[in-house]
Design goal:
By secondary structure, the chain is an all-alpha fold. It has one domain. It contains 4 helices and no strands.
Length: about 90
């Protein structure tokens, strides 16, 4: 990618000056979007939406893991004994 485009992306705060692998991927995305005719404002919107989607996907994965952990916990005998009914009768 030409240096002038990278500088422009840095000036528009689409990426930081020290580029990580993720930011290089964003630059490639910017290049694809620009090639499709998306203007700079639209590119910014698409990148923000993409980050939000990634954050939501991470949150969903975290909640799914939490749910899997909580449902796999064994119920302790002391908890069962504190129930107002006999859990053995429900079988």
């Amino acid at each position: 990618m030409p240096l002038r485009i990278i500088r422009r992306c840095i000036q528009r705060r689409l990426v930081d000056e020290v580029l990580t692998e993720a930011e290089l991927a964003e630059l490639r995305c910017i290049r694809r979007l620009a090639g499709l005719g998306v203007n700079p404002a639209g590119v910014g919107i698409v990148l923000r939406m993409r980050r939000q989607i990634e954050a939501l996907q991470a949150e969903i994965a975290r909640l799914e893991n939490l749910l899997a952990i909580s449902t796999s916990l064994e119920v302790s005998e002391t908890w069962l004994q504190s129930l107002p009914w006999d859990p053995e009768d429900s079988e």
